[in-house]
Amino acid sequence: xxxxxxxxxxxxxxxxxxxxxxxxxxxxxxxxxxxxxxxxxxxxxxxxxxxxxxxxxxxxxxxxxxxxxxxxxxxxxxxxxxxxxxxxxxxxxxxxxxxxxxxxxxxxxxxxxxxxxxxxxxxxxxxxxxxxxxxxxxxxxxxxxxxxxxxxxxxxxxxxxxxxxxxxxxxxxxxxxxxxxxxxxxxxxxxxxxxxxxxxxxxxxxxxxxxxxxxxxxxxxxxxxxxxxxxxxxxxxxxxxxxxxxxxxxxxxxxxxxxxxxxxxxxxxxxxxxxxxxxxxxxxxxxxxxxxxxxxxxxxxxxxxxxxxxxxxxxxxxxxxxxxxxxxxxxxxxxxxxxxxxxxxxxxxxxxxxxxxxxxxxxxxxxxxxxxxxxxxxxxxxxxxxxxxxxxxxxxxxxxxxxxxxxxxxxxxxxxxxxxxxxxxxxxxxxxxxxxxxxxxxxxxxxxxxxxxxxxxxxxxxxxxxxxxxxx
Length: 472
Prior knowledge:
The chain is of the alpha+beta class and 472 residues long.
């Protein structure tokens, strides 16, 4: 009895509908309630040793495959006293048998594309270690998906070649017209058997007629009808390729699926569409199974790549980036000149002004402030060859018997000097910035300079006997 929709298998797979039914069981569409995806569930109700072993082998084969033209098994389990179950990707689409019933013989180009796609899947199977032979290739086992990909399904009769010998377990079945002669009886089958079955499938796809049975042809009971007799629209080159794939003697067929694929491409004039995609060179054959390979596969500690110290790359500045900057500088200078026309002379005088040094004569006599200071440069103390802006003068000390109040000033502190602990500072108290001094005790305010253009920035010499200042 088929499983009813809604049945939950193994607490995970809920049956949606039945996709097909055979003598050994059925194939269902189901929902994986854990992942919320559609899956195909294939069952085997014949739990004899031979059928159970064959079904489990199909699960093991498919679980190890990774190819877009092949389904992938995701689960396998046995329900006691019920059956074996194999869960795989649900391939949505129509099989080639359904398409032929719907449309009749396929156009040449479409049949070639299906043949090329199936050849790629067969080449993947035949080059596994050990090789896998499908042995049941026919239109009903080729599905065409919604995105135009041909997928090879139903591995119930597949076998594995161990050391050049085929496994002897499992059932051996034949599909008349599609199975090669060597698949009958106890003859040996290999990759070329699948090539024969694919050739027969393409023959039927192009003509709508199953080719004469291979065993009858081998025994002389039948001859294969030329493909172009049944469909004159087929090119001679394609007909020759398919006839070669259907040779009774395996030695006369294409010796590999890759060779068959190249022949189909050559006769279709689509070589540009099927150029070999560049691939990375694989590891050497002895890498797999070696201790080094296992260590790398398990994330072991192999040779570590050394990383170089990081270094900052110097960015090359583009000369074009300097243009906006220069424009801003020029604009700023122009605005400054408009606001302060005398700015260039002031700046130039600041950097080129001579420095005056004043000798300071110590005195213990109290110093009184000067009401109207008048300090002129002495001709004797300044040579006539020197400019008047750089004099060396002796300060005039005016004794005073009485003390006066100290004016409220906030002088800029400078090092003490003058031999009497005087503080020199610049002040505008007379209307022009001049150098003044005052005692450290806040007494004895006096004017030191009376320069025509003013004086500023006083600084005592290290010996405290000379005073330097700047006059514009």
